[in-house]
Amino acid sequence: MSIHLVGGGWPEAGDGAAFRAFVEEAAQLARNRGVVGPPRIAVVVVRDGDGLEHAAKLVAEAGSAGPIDERVLSLPEGAAADPDSLGDSDGILVGGGLTPAYLESLTPLFDEIRRRVADGVPYLGFSAGAMIAPERAILGGWRIGGVPVSPEEAAEELDEVTVVNGIGLLDVTIEVHTAQWGTLSRLVAATAAGLSDGGIAIDEGTSLIVGAGGIRVAGAGNIWRVAPGERGVTVDVLAAG
Predict the structure, then answer these.
(1) Which of 35, 49, 71, 75 fits as disulfide partner to 30, beta carbons 3.0 to 4.6 Å?
(2) What whole-number distance in Å separates Cα of residue 7 and Cα of residue 200?
(3) Which 3 state secondary structure label does DSSP give 45?
């Protein structure tokens, strides 16, 4: 099974392209388990005021890719998740919002998420859910050493660029809303400053899929690969195929 990281956004097509491989993998796992009916998807959101609305959008997008049996867990910011809240899910979908709030609320779930993924349960992180997935996660911020490196509007209520331990599902740092919010420069600057060993920035409506066969891209946009080099930082682009 795979890890699916979506760069956020709601494509006008609404065809679930960035979610399709995740839903298909969850459905296959459900069949292998003898489940009758659609796959059981744990949909986890951490938001104040509009958690259920956001969860409904995620469910609709995933449902465009195939039928699902959603099990929604909506937490207000600051509330800690119960480690047993994922139930008997065939897939785990973690939504978007304020990335530091997701990290705070879902830390009690990290061990269980890693265990489930190791057992073959696919994970899809959408926006904040993608950013907290790696071993080292950018939480936000827009300055390094007081110098602006990215738009303040995408700072996640943080000043200095902050990199912390995430879930640990992969070993590269993730950025999201890349072309739309201008966050590529934050990943480049974090890499140049040694805060990150490089990573991948994902456009909206686009999914980076990491599995046993390597990586691939689905959806409407690009992913941007950032790595430290001998003469600075290198960047290349991989388009959805």
Answers:
(1) 35
(2) 10
(3) strand
**With bands split at pLDDT 50, 70 and 90, how would you rate the model's confidence at 22?**
very high
8 Å CB contact between 189 and 161: yes
Do the beta carbons of residue 138 and residue 196 sit within 8 Å?
yes
CB 117 within 8 A of CB 127: no
Half-sphere exposure of 239 (CA within 13 A, CB side): 1
Domain range for 117: 3-239
- Cβ atoms of 4 and 190 within 8 Å: the answer is no
Buried/exposed 9-28: b ≥16 CB within 10 Å, e otherwise: bebeeeebbbbbbbbebbbe
At 55-87, the pLDDT tens digits run 999 999 999 999 999 999 999 999 999 999 998
Residue with tokens 């891209």: 217
CATH number of the domain that residue 192 is part of:
3.40.50.880
* Number of neighbouring beta carbons within 10 Å of residue 66: 16
- Total of domains in the chain: 1
**Short-list 145, 175, 181, 173, CA closest to 160:** 145
Write phi, then psi, for 148 (nearest 5 degrees). Answer: -60, 135
pLDDT at 240: 62
- Stated as kind and residue range, the H or E segment containing 217 is strand 214-219
